[in-house]
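Deviations from the work plan: none for this task. Representative record:
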Amino acid sequence: MARHIVARTTDIPPGGNKVVGVEGRDIVVFHVNGEFFALLNRCPHAGAPLDRAACVARLTSPEPGVYQRSRVGELLRCAWHGWEFDMRNGQSYFDPGRVKIRTYPVVIEDGETLAKGPYVAETFPVHIEDSYVIIET
Amino acid sequence: MSDVIDRPALEQETSAKSRLRIIDCDIHPSLHARSDLYPFLSKRWQEHLKTYGDHLRTPYIGTTPYPRSSPLIARRDAWPPTGGPPGSDLAFMRQQHLDPLDVELGILQVLDLFIFSQQNLDFGAAIQRAINDWQLAHWTSREPRLKASVLVGQDDTEAAIAEIERCAKIGQYVQINVSPRANEPLGRHRYWPIYARAEELDLPLGIHVGGYGGHAPTGGGWPSYYAEEHQSNAHSMAATLTSLIIEGVPERFPRLKIVFIEGGFGWISSTMWRMDQHFERFRDEVPHLKRRPSEYVREHFWFTTQPIDEPDEAKHLRSLIEWVGVDRLLFSSDYPHWDFDDPRFAFRTPLSEAERAKIFNGNARALYKL
Amino acid sequence: MTATRIDCDIHPAVGGTRITLLPYLDDHWKEQVVSRAIDGLDLTSYPPNMPLSGRPDWRHADGKPGGDLAMVQRGAFDQLGASHAICNVLYGAQAVFDPYMAAAFCKAINDWIATEWLAHDKRLRASIVVPMQAPDLAIEEIERRAGDSRFVSVLVLAQGESLLGRRHFWPVYQAAEKHRLPIAIHAGSQYRAAPSSVGWPSYRYEYYLAEAHAFQAQVLSLIYEGVFVKFPGLKVVLMESGVSWLPAFMWRANKTWRGVRVEVPWIDREPAAIIRDHFRVTMQPFDGPPDAAGVADIIEMIGSDKMFLFASDYPHWQFDGDDAIPPHLPAGLVSRMCAENPLETFPRLSLAA
């Protein structure tokens, strides 16, 4: 498993995202509800870029006219055809078993830890006072 | 995770794209602002546009009757970085759509101000002139890959004919467009002068979904949801097809070519079967029809492919294509709308090289004489 | 003993308000009908003399096709081989504007069919004709017939004033579900508005084609408004709708729902799955492709053998000869659609009288 430093946490404001290139793929990193999620930046339906998806609540309903919201901001409505995906695990809402976006584990590490270990990427300078988003491929 | 629908990596797409030169029969350019039309409008109509504005048979001034599932019905990534609504910036359209998808030619369909449905017919006539001029000035004169269509409000037949004549003299339009949701079904005789002129000029008649004819989107009343209303577009197209055929438009104008735009094509085969099935039973009501309805479809009608149908099995999409006939199909993307079809991924069924060439290029080239 | 073959759609004809329904109206409506000459309510959808309305060999010298019990018995049972048949009376009671007149006329139709048809032939069943223009009065009529198991479904027209999924109809579905009555949506219009979004067609032929799309709009309305969420036991039968439009329609509904689900979050599974569970279709007309392979494809694409119901649509002229089964259907399907499927769809229909 390779670990890649892709951003400082401060590069991605809450509710925002950043697209990073890792091993030839575009990966989009979302920052929502205090967590970071990384997904391949291509919708499995027709390849739309997910960094432009609408970030919305998980919406369920037991009966007509009742709207139940949870996990606000953690569901993606794809920028093109509106398919909904859970940022956390990449699963589509309508067919979670079969239709998914590839996800990548994310860890946050502080600069001090990274400065010591072998994780410092050649292309990404690390400052010990910052926190960093690490993606594992 | 056995069925994750994965996509080829970008490198593979590069080689695919370079083989596929497409003619995109449905691209929507958009006004940056309504004031873009002022240079093409007299003072009187500039003022009218600013004050009274649209007069459509819909409840709202500022939006469509059924709220869409995304702002301005567009892909969320299609907003130009320089500002303006999706489809308003030529440079961005080139960068996002024309260049990467290797669009050889794109046919414009302007939906702004929905001229076909303006109740004030003089205003509608002024706007249609302005939009037809604007297409040339802002789009086709700056980008040779793009082609314009003459938009005419069908319910003022005189003004429509005058506009067709004007634009025919200019000579830079590839088709004449009317709306399927007109005051009356499009097959009705009141619209025949437009068809006669289109046939004489050898310009296809383009019919793009949409419009506000004043009727509910369905025969059973007004739907509550966009999900229902969106699907009603196919019904409007089917009703338009039956009207044109049954009233005898292709019988009377045998050289007229008719293009249905943004209706998709899944609904066509069952409509043809139903027309044929009941033709004998109703034959004495329509003695002017000399041929079976499906024959008229096969010889006089073309259909753009978006929104493509998505059956679970690839072979079923293949069946839909075969039932309509490869020769009838014209690829379209509907850029920049949300239910856009990407030419690389929309056809999830095997097509031969010859079939691809027809659907993505050859059929449109022959039809529009490009 | 005839094999079970349930014809889910035949049309006894009301001769006229005065000549047929008068005995079943109360004194007030009798007087209105006679003194104001309220009559001639045959639906614009089915002019009696139009070819589709009656096959030539099913018409007799006087009266409308379907007006004579003996002739209907000979046709539907002897000639076409049904063992049982469901009577769906198409008459303009369901299009009347005055809600009380509508209710009175619908009641009269149901009384007439019970007295002069169902009582005379134990093989006959009927749909309850109801005034959907006044949902509370429709419920009264349903409750009135609920104890009579010869009434097996509730009849509504495919084109009314509001789409059938709308909330104000829900109490009707509650009553229907309670009494195990499927809703039978039959081709025909109240003519409150144009039969399609493009306006009023010139020809009957054109109008008939538009009916198929009205059915589709009703299916979407019933699904998206959440009628089956509220009433999970409810089934809906599409009668005389055509069948071959189903596959492309189902795929388009799925495609749309996947992208626009947030509008209707109470729909938690694909529309096509809901269609397979809750909708049934009568098989005349089928409107199929001309070849056996195409028909097999359509059946496969629809994806549920339970949906198909045998029907002749007698006396409407949908086919020639004695075989009401559309050509090229797979053999296994034919036996299902004649017996099991109708019995499952119409739970009140018992084969013994």
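Confidence is low (pLDDT under 50) at residues 1-18 of chain B.
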